[in-house]
């Protein structure tokens, strides 16, 4: 095994307690914890929006609404599953069981210093960028040598079809910005209402991201939890899935990613829709078309871990992650 810049043994207890024995069958020992400041901001947002009752349902943390479901869908996803999305992203990025092998190092090297320009699709309430930036902020707060407090600018370009989701993301970024800044991370969020099924809309979003990729700016794509929609059938009984309809738009995105040799972290749950339908098609119909960006793993490994619930006192649930990490081939 090659040496890692950031070893699993260096993950602080505030994010991962490897000694936690919970005795739950089907889950390895250990427990993840979202960064405390992220938990606090999320609880505050839930209180401010009067969503305490809906958010108290801990049995529903690990799924996702399928598509764009208006204001009600946005609010429901935020109340019930935002923490599940963040947990999945933290599990994939910290990779405490060393399942994905390359993602922990990517976190340390991408988010060290300088300027990162991140295309976050679909933005939802911002779980992708929020979870990654908050984990880095926590590692900086812990004084981890591989996460020095150097100036880091993260420019997030987020696209989502549901404007109510975008508003929730803007709220979370506003709430977390002071803490991120304390840790030397300056974050800017630009958003666009975007439809992954429309070529023109995708071209506008990609243009917005590409326009900021100047000089030494590091290009990153974070794709999270799109399989609930894109892995689903277009019509009951029909083998065609929504990703087949979105193929040309996704190719458009990754054509620019390949040209710019962007790093991609694509993170999904571990259900059939993600691992048997969406991720294999994403690999074959989109990623395999490009030779300048390549996956670090030919399979879709899965990782599972218990995580503390930020809303229910003493509560915990299972976070499950699969995904694809794309890097430049040279
Ligand atoms: C499960 S949520 C994931 C959100 C976020 N990435 C996360 O991890 O929490 C799926 C998102 O896909 C968005 N979406 C659904 N249909 C879409 C479309 N045609 N184009 C772009 N986004 C879409 C929804 O509005 C929703 O925010």
Automatic annotation (TrEMBL):
Q: Can you tell which superkingdom this protein's organism belongs to?
A: Bacteria
Name of the protein: Uncharacterized protein
Native source organism of the sequence:
Prosthecobacter dejongeii
């Amino acid at each position: 095994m090659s040496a890692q810049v950031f070893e699993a043994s260096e993950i602080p207890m505030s994010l991962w307690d490897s000694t936690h024995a919970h005795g739950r069958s089907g889950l390895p020992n250990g427990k993840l914890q979202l960064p405390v400041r992220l938990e606090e901001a999320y609880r505050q947002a839930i209180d401010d929006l009067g969503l305490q009752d809906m958010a108290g349902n801990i049995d529903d943390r690990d799924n996702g609404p399928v598509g764009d479901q208006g204001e009600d869908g946005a609010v429901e996803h935020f109340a019930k599953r935002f923490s599940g999305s963040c947990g999945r992203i933290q599990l994939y990025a910290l990779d405490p069981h060393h399942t994905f092998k390359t993602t922990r190092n990517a976190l340390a090297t991408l988010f060290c210093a300088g300027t990162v320009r991140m295309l976050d699709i679909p933005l939802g309430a911002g779980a992708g960028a929020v979870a990654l930036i908050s984990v880095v902020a926590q590692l900086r707060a812990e004084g981890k040598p591989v996460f020095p407090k150097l100036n880091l600018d993260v420019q997030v370009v987020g696209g989502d079809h549901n404007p109510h989701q975008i508003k929730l993301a803007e709220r979370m970024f506003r709430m977390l910005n002071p803490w991120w800044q304390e840790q030397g991370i300056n974050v800017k969020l630009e958003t666009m209402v975007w439809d992954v099924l429309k070529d023109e809309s995708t071209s506008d979003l990609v243009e917005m991201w590409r326009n900021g990729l100047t000089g030494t700016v590091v290009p990153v794509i974070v794709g999270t939890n799109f399989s609930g929609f894109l892995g689903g059938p277009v019509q009951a009984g029909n083998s065609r899935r929504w990703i087949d309809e979105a193929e040309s738009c996704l190719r458009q995105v990754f054509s620019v990613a390949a040209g710019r040799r962007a790093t991609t972290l694509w993170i999904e749950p571990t259900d059939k829709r993600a691992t048997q339908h969406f991720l294999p098609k994403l690999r074959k119909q989109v990623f395999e078309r490009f030779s300048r960006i390549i996956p670090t793993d030919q399979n879709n490994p899965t990782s599972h871990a218990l995580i503390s619930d930020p809303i229910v006192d003493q509560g915990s649930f299972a976070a499950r992650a699969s995904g694809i990490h794309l890097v430049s081939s040279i």
